[in-house]
Amino acid sequence: MFKQKETKSYGIIKPSKIKDRVYRVLDLVEKPEPKKAPSNLAVIGRYILSPEIFRILRKTSPGKHGEIQLTDGLKALLKEENIYGCEFSGVRYDAGDKLGFLKATVEFALKRKDLGKEFKKYLKQLSL
Q1: Residue 86: left (phi > 0), alpha (psi -120 to 50), or beta?
Q2: Would the pLDDT of 94 be above 90?
Q3: How far is residue 24's CA from residue 104's CA, in Å, rounded to a whole number?
Q4: Beta pairing partners, 24
Q5: DSSP for 58-95?
Q6: What's the predicted TM-score (pTM) here?
Q7: Domain chopping of the chain, boundaries
């Protein structure tokens, strides 16, 4: 999870803080308007879940765009067991967004020992 102002672009949790950056998830809301969001803690999409989620997903009806939404499955799982989340600290790249994916690619390429110097030289050559 990470703090996010633009709640209408993410799944948002209703949290119960346990300790430091650890929360119990009480509810999930998919892409709520900011005024209806239960918090500003967004789900990133990295999960450690019990195998029960697969049984639940098999029973979950398709949602938007005819797809089975994991958020719907997680809401159902919450009725059977606790779900916990950890607030992420560090740099987050939105690789689901075209520009975010490109930014991540460039930044990681620049950090590579085998490519960084040459890639930086290449970028400097570009007439930006």
Answers
A1: beta
A2: no
A3: 30
A4: 16, 84
A5: HHPPP-GGGPPPHHHHHHHHHTTS-EEEE---S----T
A6: 0.74
A7: 2-92, 93-128
